[in-house]
Amino acid sequence: MKRISLLILLALTLLNANIWAQPGKKALIGFYNVENLFDTINDPIKNDEQFLPQGDYQWTSERYHAKLENLSTVIDEMMKLDGGLVVLGLSEVENEHVLLDLANTEKLRPYNLKVCHHDSPDRRGVDVSFFYDPARFRVIDTASFPLVVPNEPEFISRDQWLMTGILDNTDTLYILVNHWPSKAGGERRSLPGRLAAGSLSRVIADDIMKKHPGAKFILMGDLNDNPNSKAIMQCLGTKTNEKSVTLNDLYNPMWKMFHNGIGSYAYRDSWEMLDNIVVSGGLMWARPNTYKFVSAHVFRKDFMFTKTGSYRGYPFRTFAGGNYQGGYSDHLPVYIILSK
Q1: Tell me: the pLDDT tens digits for 30-52?
Q2: Domain membership of residue 192 as a residue range
Q3: For the purposes of burial, counting CB atoms within 10 Å of the CB of 97, is it exposed (0-12), middle (13-18) or buried (19 or more)?
Q4: CATH number of the domain encompassing residue 159
Q5: I need a surface site. Which of 13, 116, 136, 258 has the fewest CB within 10 A?
Q6: Euclidean distance between CA atoms 337 and 340, whole angstroms
Q7: Assigned domain for 245 exists
Protein backbone atom coordinates (compact mmCIF):
# COMPACT_ATOMS: atom_id res chain seq x y z
CA MET A 1 0.00 0.00 0.00
CA LYS A 2 2.84 2.39 0.82
CA ARG A 3 4.42 1.68 -2.58
CA ILE A 4 1.11 2.33 -4.40
CA SER A 5 0.58 5.54 -2.44
CA LEU A 6 4.06 6.75 -3.34
CA LEU A 7 3.46 5.95 -7.01
CA ILE A 8 0.15 7.86 -6.95
CA LEU A 9 1.83 10.82 -5.24
CA LEU A 10 4.65 10.76 -7.78
CA ALA A 11 2.17 10.59 -10.67
CA LEU A 12 0.20 13.55 -9.31
CA THR A 13 3.40 15.53 -8.81
CA LEU A 14 4.51 14.88 -12.39
CA LEU A 15 1.04 15.75 -13.69
CA ASN A 16 1.02 19.07 -11.84
CA ALA A 17 4.58 19.80 -12.98
CA ASN A 18 3.55 19.09 -16.58
CA ILE A 19 0.55 21.41 -16.30
CA TRP A 20 2.66 24.29 -14.98
CA ALA A 21 5.42 23.60 -17.53
CA GLN A 22 3.07 24.04 -20.48
CA PRO A 23 3.83 27.29 -22.33
CA GLY A 24 1.32 30.08 -21.90
CA LYS A 25 -0.54 31.76 -24.72
CA LYS A 26 1.70 33.89 -26.94
CA ALA A 27 1.23 37.11 -28.84
CA LEU A 28 3.62 38.81 -31.26
CA ILE A 29 3.87 42.59 -31.65
CA GLY A 30 5.91 43.84 -34.61
CA PHE A 31 7.05 46.83 -36.63
CA TYR A 32 7.95 47.18 -40.31
CA ASN A 33 9.24 50.16 -42.29
CA VAL A 34 7.82 49.25 -45.69
CA GLU A 35 9.91 51.75 -47.71
CA ASN A 36 7.69 54.27 -49.47
CA LEU A 37 4.40 52.50 -49.98
CA PHE A 38 2.77 55.06 -52.31
CA ASP A 39 -0.16 54.59 -54.62
CA THR A 40 -0.10 55.89 -58.22
CA ILE A 41 -2.64 58.68 -57.71
CA ASN A 42 -1.52 62.30 -57.41
CA ASP A 43 -2.41 63.82 -54.04
CA PRO A 44 -2.19 67.62 -54.32
CA ILE A 45 -1.43 68.07 -50.61
CA LYS A 46 1.39 65.49 -50.52
CA ASN A 47 4.85 65.42 -52.04
CA ASP A 48 4.20 62.27 -54.07
CA GLU A 49 5.30 63.46 -57.52
CA GLN A 50 8.19 60.97 -57.69
CA PHE A 51 5.76 58.11 -57.11
CA LEU A 52 3.54 58.68 -60.12
CA PRO A 53 3.61 56.85 -63.48
CA GLN A 54 5.28 59.90 -65.09
CA GLY A 55 7.44 60.65 -62.02
CA ASP A 56 11.14 60.03 -61.43
CA TYR A 57 10.48 56.48 -60.19
CA GLN A 58 8.01 55.65 -62.98
CA TRP A 59 5.68 54.32 -60.30
CA THR A 60 3.23 52.40 -62.46
CA SER A 61 0.30 50.25 -61.41
CA GLU A 62 2.41 47.17 -62.16
CA ARG A 63 5.16 48.31 -59.80
CA TYR A 64 2.66 49.28 -57.12
CA HIS A 65 0.95 45.88 -57.19
CA ALA A 66 4.32 44.10 -57.23
CA LYS A 67 5.21 46.06 -54.08
CA LEU A 68 1.94 45.02 -52.42
CA GLU A 69 2.59 41.39 -53.33
CA ASN A 70 6.12 41.50 -51.94
CA LEU A 71 5.07 43.10 -48.65
CA SER A 72 2.18 40.68 -48.27
CA THR A 73 4.65 37.79 -48.58
CA VAL A 74 6.73 39.12 -45.68
CA ILE A 75 3.74 39.89 -43.46
CA ASP A 76 2.14 36.53 -44.25
CA GLU A 77 5.31 34.80 -43.05
CA MET A 78 5.22 36.85 -39.85
CA MET A 79 1.56 35.98 -39.28
CA LYS A 80 2.53 32.32 -39.33
CA LEU A 81 5.10 32.67 -36.54
CA ASP A 82 4.38 30.74 -33.34
CA GLY A 83 2.00 32.79 -31.24
CA GLY A 84 0.59 34.82 -34.09
CA LEU A 85 1.25 38.42 -35.06
CA VAL A 86 -1.45 40.48 -33.32
CA VAL A 87 -0.29 44.06 -33.99
CA LEU A 88 2.07 45.33 -36.69
CA GLY A 89 3.19 48.96 -36.67
CA LEU A 90 4.08 50.38 -40.08
CA SER A 91 5.94 53.41 -41.37
CA GLU A 92 6.42 55.08 -44.77
CA VAL A 93 2.83 54.56 -45.93
CA GLU A 94 1.18 57.29 -47.98
CA ASN A 95 -2.39 56.91 -46.77
CA GLU A 96 -5.06 54.56 -45.48
CA HIS A 97 -5.92 53.46 -49.00
CA VAL A 98 -2.58 51.72 -49.60
CA LEU A 99 -2.96 49.83 -46.32
CA LEU A 100 -6.43 48.65 -47.30
CA ASP A 101 -5.00 47.48 -50.64
CA LEU A 102 -2.24 45.62 -48.79
CA ALA A 103 -4.67 44.01 -46.35
CA ASN A 104 -6.80 42.90 -49.29
CA THR A 105 -4.02 41.07 -51.14
CA GLU A 106 -4.49 37.36 -51.74
CA LYS A 107 -2.06 36.34 -48.99
CA LEU A 108 -3.35 38.73 -46.31
CA ARG A 109 -7.09 38.73 -47.02
CA PRO A 110 -7.74 35.54 -44.96
CA TYR A 111 -6.36 37.23 -41.82
CA ASN A 112 -9.01 39.99 -41.91
CA LEU A 113 -6.46 42.57 -40.75
CA LYS A 114 -7.84 45.96 -39.74
CA VAL A 115 -6.17 49.34 -40.20
CA CYS A 116 -5.58 52.05 -37.59
CA HIS A 117 -4.27 55.02 -39.55
CA HIS A 118 -3.57 58.71 -38.99
CA ASP A 119 -2.65 61.36 -41.57
CA SER A 120 0.52 63.19 -40.53
CA PRO A 121 1.81 66.57 -41.76
CA ASP A 122 5.09 65.05 -43.00
CA ARG A 123 6.68 66.89 -45.93
CA ARG A 124 7.30 63.64 -47.84
CA GLY A 125 3.70 62.62 -47.29
CA VAL A 126 4.38 59.41 -45.36
CA ASP A 127 2.59 58.30 -42.21
CA VAL A 128 2.84 55.76 -39.41
CA SER A 129 -0.01 53.28 -38.94
CA PHE A 130 -1.07 49.92 -37.54
CA PHE A 131 -2.40 46.61 -38.77
CA TYR A 132 -4.12 44.57 -36.07
CA ASP A 133 -5.97 41.26 -35.74
CA PRO A 134 -9.52 42.11 -34.60
CA ALA A 135 -10.04 38.54 -33.36
CA ARG A 136 -7.45 39.15 -30.64
CA PHE A 137 -7.06 42.92 -30.30
CA ARG A 138 -9.82 45.46 -29.70
CA VAL A 139 -8.99 49.15 -30.20
CA ILE A 140 -10.49 51.38 -27.52
CA ASP A 141 -8.71 54.70 -28.11
CA THR A 142 -6.24 56.54 -30.36
CA ALA A 143 -4.31 59.79 -30.05
CA SER A 144 -1.78 61.71 -32.15
CA PHE A 145 1.12 63.78 -30.84
CA PRO A 146 2.78 66.35 -33.16
CA LEU A 147 6.53 66.77 -32.94
CA VAL A 148 7.81 70.26 -32.08
CA VAL A 149 11.55 70.98 -32.27
CA PRO A 150 12.81 73.88 -30.11
CA ASN A 151 13.99 76.92 -32.06
CA GLU A 152 12.83 75.38 -35.37
CA PRO A 153 9.29 76.72 -35.93
CA GLU A 154 9.23 75.54 -39.57
CA PHE A 155 10.12 71.95 -38.69
CA ILE A 156 7.53 69.36 -39.80
CA SER A 157 7.67 65.61 -39.28
CA ARG A 158 5.50 62.58 -38.64
CA ASP A 159 3.17 62.65 -35.65
CA GLN A 160 3.61 59.99 -32.99
CA TRP A 161 0.50 57.77 -33.11
CA LEU A 162 -0.82 56.02 -29.99
CA MET A 163 -3.22 53.09 -30.15
CA THR A 164 -4.74 51.71 -26.95
CA GLY A 165 -6.46 48.35 -27.00
CA ILE A 166 -7.30 45.10 -25.24
CA LEU A 167 -5.30 41.97 -26.06
CA ASP A 168 -7.19 38.67 -25.78
CA ASN A 169 -9.76 40.27 -23.46
CA THR A 170 -7.21 40.41 -20.64
CA ASP A 171 -4.45 43.00 -21.12
CA THR A 172 -4.59 46.70 -21.95
CA LEU A 173 -1.71 47.66 -24.23
CA TYR A 174 -0.59 51.21 -25.01
CA ILE A 175 1.31 51.07 -28.31
CA LEU A 176 3.09 54.13 -29.70
CA VAL A 177 4.35 53.93 -33.29
CA ASN A 178 7.09 56.33 -34.42
CA HIS A 179 9.15 57.39 -37.39
CA TRP A 180 11.68 59.82 -35.99
CA PRO A 181 13.39 62.46 -38.19
CA SER A 182 16.09 61.11 -40.48
CA LYS A 183 19.77 62.05 -40.63
CA ALA A 184 19.32 63.97 -43.88
CA GLY A 185 21.63 66.96 -43.87
CA GLY A 186 24.10 65.30 -41.53
CA GLU A 187 24.23 64.22 -37.89
CA ARG A 188 24.73 67.66 -36.33
CA ARG A 189 21.97 69.35 -38.31
CA SER A 190 19.43 66.55 -37.90
CA LEU A 191 20.11 65.54 -34.28
CA PRO A 192 17.79 68.11 -32.61
CA GLY A 193 14.80 66.51 -34.35
CA ARG A 194 15.53 63.08 -32.91
CA LEU A 195 16.33 64.48 -29.46
CA ALA A 196 12.95 66.21 -29.48
CA ALA A 197 11.27 63.01 -30.69
CA GLY A 198 12.84 60.99 -27.88
CA SER A 199 11.78 63.55 -25.29
CA LEU A 200 8.21 63.61 -26.65
CA SER A 201 7.97 59.80 -26.53
CA ARG A 202 9.19 59.83 -22.93
CA VAL A 203 6.58 62.42 -21.93
CA ILE A 204 3.86 60.26 -23.50
CA ALA A 205 5.15 57.14 -21.74
CA ASP A 206 5.45 58.86 -18.35
CA ASP A 207 1.95 60.29 -18.61
CA ILE A 208 0.51 56.85 -19.32
CA MET A 209 2.47 55.15 -16.53
CA LYS A 210 1.52 57.89 -14.06
CA LYS A 211 -2.18 57.54 -14.85
CA HIS A 212 -2.01 53.74 -15.01
CA PRO A 213 0.66 52.34 -12.66
CA GLY A 214 2.16 49.18 -14.11
CA ALA A 215 0.88 50.11 -17.60
CA LYS A 216 1.94 47.84 -20.45
CA PHE A 217 3.46 50.39 -22.80
CA ILE A 218 5.22 49.56 -26.08
CA LEU A 219 7.12 52.04 -28.22
CA MET A 220 8.03 50.93 -31.71
CA GLY A 221 9.32 52.47 -34.88
CA ASP A 222 12.09 53.50 -37.20
CA LEU A 223 13.92 55.81 -34.81
CA ASN A 224 16.67 56.58 -37.34
CA ASP A 225 19.18 55.99 -34.54
CA ASN A 226 20.88 53.02 -32.95
CA PRO A 227 19.98 51.84 -29.42
CA ASN A 228 23.13 53.44 -27.96
CA SER A 229 22.29 56.92 -29.29
CA LYS A 230 21.71 59.97 -27.13
CA ALA A 231 18.13 60.35 -28.38
CA ILE A 232 17.22 56.82 -27.29
CA MET A 233 19.30 56.32 -24.15
CA GLN A 234 19.09 59.82 -22.66
CA CYS A 235 15.99 61.55 -24.08
CA LEU A 236 13.81 58.45 -24.24
CA GLY A 237 15.63 57.16 -21.17
CA THR A 238 15.89 53.48 -22.00
CA LYS A 239 17.63 50.91 -19.84
CA THR A 240 19.69 48.04 -21.25
CA ASN A 241 19.88 45.71 -18.24
CA GLU A 242 16.68 43.74 -17.65
CA LYS A 243 17.40 43.21 -13.96
CA SER A 244 17.55 46.95 -13.25
CA VAL A 245 14.17 47.75 -14.83
CA THR A 246 11.41 48.97 -12.50
CA LEU A 247 7.72 49.47 -13.29
CA ASN A 248 8.29 53.07 -14.39
CA ASP A 249 11.33 52.32 -16.57
CA LEU A 250 11.62 51.66 -20.30
CA TYR A 251 13.70 48.72 -21.49
CA ASN A 252 15.22 48.42 -24.98
CA PRO A 253 15.91 44.76 -25.84
CA MET A 254 17.34 45.79 -29.23
CA TRP A 255 20.46 47.17 -27.52
CA LYS A 256 21.79 43.69 -26.81
CA MET A 257 21.23 42.56 -30.41
CA PHE A 258 22.89 45.69 -31.79
CA HIS A 259 25.81 45.13 -29.41
CA ASN A 260 26.13 41.63 -30.91
CA GLY A 261 26.23 42.92 -34.48
CA ILE A 262 22.59 42.29 -35.38
CA GLY A 263 20.63 45.01 -37.18
CA SER A 264 17.55 45.85 -39.19
CA TYR A 265 19.15 48.18 -41.74
CA ALA A 266 22.42 47.90 -43.67
CA TYR A 267 24.54 50.97 -44.36
CA ARG A 268 28.08 51.10 -45.73
CA ASP A 269 28.57 47.37 -45.21
CA SER A 270 27.55 47.41 -41.55
CA TRP A 271 24.32 46.66 -39.73
CA GLU A 272 22.40 49.32 -37.82
CA MET A 273 19.43 48.80 -35.49
CA LEU A 274 17.27 51.72 -36.56
CA ASP A 275 14.04 49.81 -35.93
CA ASN A 276 13.45 49.53 -32.21
CA ILE A 277 10.78 48.13 -29.92
CA VAL A 278 10.91 49.43 -26.35
CA VAL A 279 8.79 48.04 -23.49
CA SER A 280 7.78 49.36 -20.09
CA GLY A 281 8.52 47.74 -16.74
CA GLY A 282 4.85 46.80 -16.59
CA LEU A 283 5.48 44.32 -19.40
CA MET A 284 8.69 43.07 -17.80
CA TRP A 285 7.16 42.35 -14.39
CA ALA A 286 3.57 41.47 -15.30
CA ARG A 287 1.10 39.92 -12.88
CA PRO A 288 0.40 36.16 -13.11
CA ASN A 289 -1.96 35.07 -15.90
CA THR A 290 -1.30 38.22 -17.89
CA TYR A 291 1.05 38.89 -20.78
CA LYS A 292 4.71 39.71 -20.19
CA PHE A 293 7.67 40.48 -22.43
CA VAL A 294 9.76 37.43 -23.34
CA SER A 295 12.15 38.32 -26.17
CA ALA A 296 12.86 40.55 -29.18
CA HIS A 297 13.82 39.54 -32.72
CA VAL A 298 14.66 40.74 -36.21
CA PHE A 299 12.58 38.93 -38.83
CA ARG A 300 14.87 37.53 -41.52
CA LYS A 301 14.15 35.24 -44.45
CA ASP A 302 16.56 34.39 -47.26
CA PHE A 303 14.27 35.81 -49.95
CA MET A 304 14.38 39.24 -48.27
CA PHE A 305 18.06 39.80 -49.18
CA THR A 306 19.83 40.95 -52.34
CA LYS A 307 21.72 38.05 -53.91
CA THR A 308 24.12 39.78 -56.33
CA GLY A 309 25.83 43.08 -57.10
CA SER A 310 27.13 45.86 -54.87
CA TYR A 311 24.16 45.48 -52.50
CA ARG A 312 24.63 41.74 -52.03
CA GLY A 313 23.65 40.75 -48.48
CA TYR A 314 21.63 43.95 -47.95
CA PRO A 315 17.85 43.88 -47.54
CA PHE A 316 16.28 43.49 -51.00
CA ARG A 317 14.76 46.94 -51.46
CA THR A 318 12.35 48.55 -53.90
CA PHE A 319 14.80 51.20 -55.07
CA ALA A 320 18.57 51.48 -54.73
CA GLY A 321 20.43 54.56 -55.93
CA GLY A 322 17.24 55.71 -57.63
CA ASN A 323 17.04 52.52 -59.68
CA TYR A 324 14.11 50.15 -59.46
CA GLN A 325 15.06 46.80 -57.89
CA GLY A 326 11.64 45.25 -57.40
CA GLY A 327 12.33 44.12 -53.85
CA TYR A 328 10.57 44.31 -50.50
CA SER A 329 12.00 47.08 -48.29
CA ASP A 330 15.33 48.55 -47.27
CA HIS A 331 14.47 47.65 -43.65
CA LEU A 332 13.87 44.31 -41.97
CA PRO A 333 10.87 43.95 -39.65
CA VAL A 334 11.33 43.55 -35.90
CA TYR A 335 9.03 41.97 -33.36
CA ILE A 336 8.68 41.00 -29.72
CA ILE A 337 7.12 37.94 -28.15
CA LEU A 338 4.69 38.25 -25.25
CA SER A 339 3.62 35.23 -23.24
CA LYS A 340 1.32 34.53 -20.30
Answers
A1: 999 999 999 999 998 888 999 99
A2: 26-339
A3: middle
A4: 3.60.10.10
A5: 13
A6: 10
A7: yes
- Supply the Cα-derived Rg of the chain in whole angstroms: 22
In angstroms, rounded to a whole number, what is the distance separating the alpha carbons of residues 223 and 193?
11
- 233-271 pLDDT, tens digit per residue, is 999 999 999 999 999 999 999 999 999 999 999 999 999
How many domains is the chain built from? Answer: 1
38 lies in some domain = yes
Say how far apart CA 216 and CA 117 lie, in whole Å: 21
The answer to whether position 7 is within a domain reads no
Say whether pLDDT at 19 is over 60. no
The order of strands in the sheet holding 250-251 is 137-145, 160-167, 171-179, 216-222, 275-280, 250-251, 238-239
261 alpha-carbon distance from chain centroid = 20
Share of the chain above pLDDT 70, in %: 93
3-state DSSP helix/strand/coil percent for the chain, to nearest 5?
Answer: 30, 30, 40
Whether 21 is in a domain gets the answer no
3-state secondary structure of 276: strand
- Nearest Cα neighbor of 131 from 170, 180, 74, 181 is 74
User: How many whole angstroms separate alpha carbon 268 and alpha carbon 272?
Assistant: 10
Backbone angles phi, psi at 317, to 5 degrees: -100, 170
Q: What sections of the chain are H helices per DSSP? A: 2-21, 61-79, 96-103, 187-211, 230, 254-259, 281-284
